[in-house]
Amino acid sequence: MKLIYIITFFYSLSLFAIESDMNPKFIEGYKFPNDQSEGTSAIKTKALLPTENSFKGGHNKLLKSVLPSIYQDNAGSCLFMSHTSAIEVLYSENFKRNYDFSERFFMNLSKADIGGDRISNWRTDTVYRLNEAKKIQTNTEYPFVKGWYKTVNGKRVKAREGENGAFYGVKYNWVIDNQQLNRPGVKLPTLEREVLFKDKDENQWNVGQAPSDIVKRVKEAFQKRNAPIIVIYNHTGFWHAVTVVGYNDNASSASCPFVSSYKEKMDKRAEEIRVEASEQVDPKAKRKLLRKARKFNLRGQQVHDSYLDNGGCKGKGVFYVRDSIYPNKEMALYDYDINKEGEEENLNAPIILREYEWLEQVANHAYQIYFE
After folding, report:
1. Stated pTM of the model
2. Structural domain range at position 361
3. What is the Cα–Cα distance from 194 to 209, expressed in whole angstroms?
4. What percent of the chain clears pLDDT 90, i.e. is strictly above it?
5. Domain tally, the chain
6. What are the φ/ψ torsions at residue 163 (nearest 5 degrees)?
7. Where are the alpha helices (DSSP H) in 22-133?
8. Alpha-carbon distance 66 to 145, whole Å?
9. What is residue 62's predicted lDDT score, i.e. its pLDDT?
10. How far apart are CA 218 and CA 152, in angstroms?
11. Quick one: average pLDDT of 135-146?
12. Mean pLDDT value of segment 54-59
C-alpha cells in the first residue's frame, strides 16, 4: 500500500529558503472553474515563493502549525481547503496537536446542508457547519481521493469504472457518504468568525471594493487573536479562497506580480471568450459570452486604474498564504487512490507570498476564524 505523506511547515521551509530577494522564485499552478458559470478551462498563474528573508521580522507565529495543502485539481474545493487549514492551525495552536483534517468531510457537510440554517452568507458563514457537526474527521479517516462518479438528477453519486456517464477524478469528493459522516471524528470547540470586510453585493467576483484600510484591519486582527484569516478574491476571473497565516511589512513584494499583471491576464481571457462567442450559433449564448468578456475587461481595467491611483507597487509588504493550487515538485507525493498507480500529485508549496496590493485590489471578503 502506498502512503499518504504529511510534511510540516518548518521542514518544508528549507526547500524554499534558497533564493535571494534580488532573484525571486515563482511557482506555477492551475486554477479550475468552480462551476460552469466560470467556464470549462483552467487558467495558469504564478505565485511568489518565500526567500530566506521573507520571514525575518514578520508576524509568523502561526507558521509552525501550517500543513501544506493537497492539490485540489478541478474539485472546486478551495473554500473547504482554506477552512480546513484554518481549523488545523487553530487546533495545533490551542491543543498542541497537529492533525491533518479532512476536506472531504467538510465538503460533505456542505453538500448535505448540515448546519444550513446557520448560514446567511456562504462566503462568510461556512465555518458554522462545523458547529452543527461538533466535530471534524481526519484525512486518514476520510481522505481526499479520486474515484468514479456520475451525476444523477443533479447530484453526484458513486459509479463503476467504465459505467455510462461516469468520470474519474477529485470531484468524487462531493459524493456524500453518510456512513463516513457519522463516524466520531475529532471533537471541536465552538467556532466563531469576525468579518473584517465583505462585499456590499455579496459578490465573490467583485474587485476594487475593499476598504482603503483593509491591510491594517487584517494586521490588527492577527495582533488581536493570532488566528488565521480567510480571503476570497477574484483570481483573474475565477473566485478563489485562501488562508492567510501572517504578514511581513518589510519583505519584498517583487514588483507585485499578481496585481501588476492582472489587467493583461483579464484582457487575454476576455479575448478568448470573444473567440468562443464567435463560434456560437445560438444568438442568446453569443450575447451571454460577449457580456462576460466585457466584465473581464471592466474588472481588469478597474484593478489597473485603482492600483495606479494608489501609487502602484510599494515594493514591500507581503502576506503569508496557504493555497491549494500550487503543487511543488520538491514536495512529497500525495496518493489519491491506493488502488492505482500514476494518479499521485505533489503537495502544494506550504506557503506562497501575496503582495499587500493583492488584498487591496482584488479581495471581496475577509474574515478571521477562531475558537470561541
Report:
1. 0.94
2. 9-256+313-371
3. 18
4. 88
5. 1
6. -65, 145
7. 78-95, 103-111, 122-125, 128-133
8. 21
9. 97
10. 43
11. 97
12. 94
